[in-house]
Amino acid sequence: MTFLESIFERLKRSANSPVLGEVRGHQTLEVNGSQLLAMVSEAREFLAARGLKRGDRCAILAPNSIRWVALDLGLMAEGIVVVPLDPRQVPHEIAAVIKDSTPSLVCSCDPTLGANLSAAGAAAGRVALFDNIFTGTARSAQSSVVHAHPHADHDAVTIVYTSGTSGEPKGVVLNAGNITFMLGATHARLDQLMGVRQEPEKIFQYAPFCFAAARILLLTSLSRNSILMLSTDLTQIADELKAATPNYFVNVPMFLERVRRKVEDSIQKRGGFAANIFFRAQKAYQRKQGPGGTWSDRLWLSLGNALVFPAIRKNVGPNLKALICGSAPLSADTQLFFMMLGIPVLQVYGLTETTAICTMDEPGKVEPGRVGRAVPGVEMITADNGEILVRGPHIFPGYWQRPAATAKALGGGWFHTGDQGEADASGNWRITGRLKNLIILNSGHNIAPEPIEQALAADLPEAQQIVLVGNQRSYLAALVTTVGANGSSNAANSAGGNGIDRGRIQSVLDALNSELPHYKQIRAFYVLGEPFSMENGLLTTMGKLKRDAISERFAAEIEALYQKKPS
Q1: Residue 98's Cα: distance from chain center in Å?
Q2: What pLDDT does residue 483 have?
Q3: Predicted local distance difference test score (pLDDT) of residue 492
Q4: Do 3-196 and 253-318+320-436 have matching folds?
């Protein structure tokens, strides 16, 4: 039985039970298995009427929704290759992906899409609206749906475009064998987390389905006893979480950092006895991770666990069994923060080319700062330069219409991740940086910026983002973003500024530099009033830094950091 047939069989078994929903404010809209199958049937009838056939490509450009899922299932059932697009991208980026993937049809919920794409020179006359696909007039609710076109392992199922942190996004082809293997791995790990239970699992999803990890969670959820609730408004996630009350959901580090900061700021403003307990207990918990710790630490932790942490945990998510985090390294401090509250954070490491996952933390065996062991069936090693190499059934067959890039990525029979990392004696991996992000000083020293950026961010929570620069320069410098701040400073300058205190930055740098070798010390910084964002083109839609774009945008500011030799 293929992964798609397994999903349809599960939906048939859940004909009268909710399987999928949308969170709309404080309310939810749900569909049961029978209703979702009817929508899939409706999508298939529309696709057949438009003449789409097995092997064609069809793009979906829309926010997550029940209709998105039904169309996705309908396309795969017809053997059509799905190209999920990110609706948050700017039109010219969307047009570029459409031109590259050349879909026979682009499906969207936005009536203005056709005109926008035509203006950008893409998909003219090839747009279909969800309102025309789903009219509620399907002739057969289930009979045609459960008989999906069978996929051989090598058959392409989807083309997922990378986020393009530097350079042009590439289309990653994933086949049925990749997805089947990965769903087996995710089921096994979620079974460990949730144990044996009769009631359905409750899952929340806010990451767009254009990302491989989000899509894997979707397909996993549809094939197990669960109810997947979809976010419909990313600006209202806190309220949506309260309505969804999930057992687990997938996050990115940026989201968890914001939650942590919001909790700490709220408690600080409230003050009083509870705040005193919280911050003393937090320091006690941090000391507990090292050789320190006293009887008073145990006292404050007991008070925190009894009087403060349960209320915070309930507010974050009363039913949470775990938070699952991926896409970028998560700071150990933030992971420990949630563990202190009694909410495990399970890290996942992987790339689009690895069907989203290579490693997964095992429940009960979490080591903060590490991302778990390779899932069974996956091999991971490091090359001489520290690059992580991977092979297994989850490795993509190639990039869409890019044979040279494919050959380079899969050279020697291993997928070259571009990430650097190390595994401990038990095989638990730590990701230390990206090869292409390495800063090479003119002294010849190679420096991975991510660990230093994370350490600085942990000690400087007022800063929104921190990026190290210094390639082919004589020392490292930092760009610090914060709302309302502007102007530069070298390491000797302690003048004040808007939005963040420069003296505060300098004192944090001095403390950090004292623990670093001379070539890793940050000798200058520049405070920017413009945070990096998707809107200004300096972050990907998953919150990753576009380092090349940042260096280009702030070339003058960076150059100013090297005009004077810092004292």
Answers
A1: 23
A2: 56
A3: 34
A4: yes
Q: What is the pLDDT of residues 287-301, one digit of tens each?
A: 888 766 678 888 999
Structure token digits, residue 357: 């996952």
Q: What is the DSSP letter of 430?
A: E
Torsion angle, CA of 55/56/57/63, rounded to 10 degrees?
Answer: -100
SS (H, E, C) 229-253: EEECCHHHHHHHHHHHCCCEEEECH
Are the CB atoms for 323 and 206 separated by under 8 Å?
Answer: no
405-463 pLDDT per residue, tens: 999 999 999 999 999 999 999 999 999 888 888 898 887 788 889 889 988 988 888 88
User: CA nearest 460: which of 487, 434, 485, 431?
Assistant: 485
Distance separating alpha carbons of residues 99 and 106, to the nearest angstrom: 11
How confident is the model at residue 531, as a pLDDT?
87
- For β-strands 248-251 and 359-360, DSSP reports them as unpaired
pLDDT at 498: 47
Q: Dihedrals φ, ψ of 135, to 5°?
A: -110, -5
- Burial (CB count <10 Å: 0-12, 13-18, 19+), residue 34: middle
Q: How far is CA 498 from CA 505, 516, 555, in A?
A: 13, 29, 22
- Check residues 557 and 498 and name the one with the higher pLDDT: 557
What are the domain boundaries of the chain?
3-196, 253-318+320-436, 438-561
Residue of 180, 159, 217 whose CA lies nearest to 2? 180
Q: Please provide the average confidence, as pLDDT, over all residues in the chain.
A: 89
Local structure of residue 147 (DSSP, 8 states): S
- Let me know if domain 3-196 sits in CATH 3.40.50.12780: yes
